[in-house]
Structure formats: C-alpha cells, structure tokens
Design a protein that fits this description.
alpha/beta, five-stranded mixed beta sheet, two-stranded antiparallel sheet, 7 strands, 18% strand, globular
Amino acid sequence: MLLAEIHGKTLEVARDNEDYLTSAVFGHLRYVSPGPFWDDLLKRARGLPGPGGQEPSLGSMLADAGRSPSAYSRLEVRFWRHHATHGEPDLILHFTADGRPPLVVLIEAKLWSEKSGTGDRDQLVRYLRVLEDLALAGVNVPADAARFLVYLTPGESLVEVADSTARVDDPARDRPRLFRLQWQDVLEAADAAWPGSQEPTCTILADVACFLRTLGLEYFRGLSRLDDLPLLEPGFGAFYTAGLTGFRGMTREPKMGFFEVCKGGWS
C-alpha cells in the first residue's frame, strides 16, 4: 500500500482502513533501529496537562530517566497481539539492550474512528491493563520494564484521553503512562530524521513521510498557490469540491442558479 500510494496507485478502500495504515507505516518503521527517529517521535507524544498547563513529553521523561530509545540496541515490533481478557492492541514496541530494563510502548492507532468501549470497557483503560499483563499478550518482560500506552490519531485526542484517565484502575500508576500522538507527528519525525540517516533507514523514513503526506496526514502550514488550475469562465456559478484526501480542483455546474448576496448579522 505504501509504495502504491506514493506512485499514484490509489486504492480508496484501503485509504480509510486504519489497519492498512498501521501496517503500511509501522511495517516499514520496524526496520528502523533505535536512534534519533524514535527519540524524536516519543518526544512528540504528550500527556495530560499538569497544574501549570504544561503537557509532559514521553520522550523527555524517558531521556531524564536514561531510557530513551537510543539507549537501546534492539527493537521488536509486535502487531495485533491478542490478550484474552482485554483485547487486541495494534502494536507493541519492545526496546531491549543488554544490562538495562526493557522499554515497552503499546500503541493504539486510529484513523477516522474514536476509541471503543465505555466505562469499565473503555479501550484505553483495557490496554493499560494489558501493560500489567503483557505475558498473556505474548510479550515476556521483567517487572522493572518501563511501560507506556500511546494513543495515535489524526486529530487532537485530549478529550478522549482525559475521559479514559478518569476511569483507570490505579491513577498514580496509570495516568503517567498514557500519552497521545498524531499521525502528523510520525511524518514530521521521519522528515527530520531521514536526511541524516544511512541506508536503508534513509529510504524507509523518506518513504513513510511521503506516504503520510500523500494521504494528507500532515499539519497545516498555510495556504499555497496552484498555478495549473483552470480559470473559471465568467457568467457561471462554481464551487469547490474537497475530500478528506485533499483539494481536488474546481468544477463547474451550469444548472446551479445564481443567488442574491445579502448582508448578514453576527451573533
């Protein structure tokens, strides 16, 4: 899917499927060794605002504890590991190195849907429980492993995350473990890391960034001008057509009648 999209071979049914998106992106990123990309990506993961309004960064917190991804030598990415009680998170990042406790980052990825479940069955609450019982999901780690949950979405998910943290089993343990991240952050972290990376990491990160940009999953950076759009003919009504995949140009509708422009009020 990733290379097909980059080269204009679009499959619409796959574009809106979050499992295809997750596999396309992280199926490539699993070959990127622990280092600057992963450090930068986790620094972009944000927790709930504290009393002063500051949002903690997962990557900064790990760096302060000497547990940044770059401190590890190996990364294993596990996809859709089923937990018999609490469900099937999308992926688990398992960072390891000799002589240091592992780092485990469970990621739940969404595209156009929101988290599932309510109350005690809240999806993020269930996946925080998976962190406490990773062995049942096929990931065996010692008790001192660092464990975190990242909720990956295309838009701001603060409301959803705040709702989940109000329902956790152990607030002192669970709330500092829950972070949110956007697909746009993956693009920017890849964009920042690929120019200084060696092959094959350089190509992997450049392709991931191009793929996400093709899908329109990038932060808004202002308006730009397209010089190849056709001019509108005078005397005809026209309208813009836009979809979730980006601006598609202008169309003319001869049957559309003119309407009177009236002065409106503000409230």
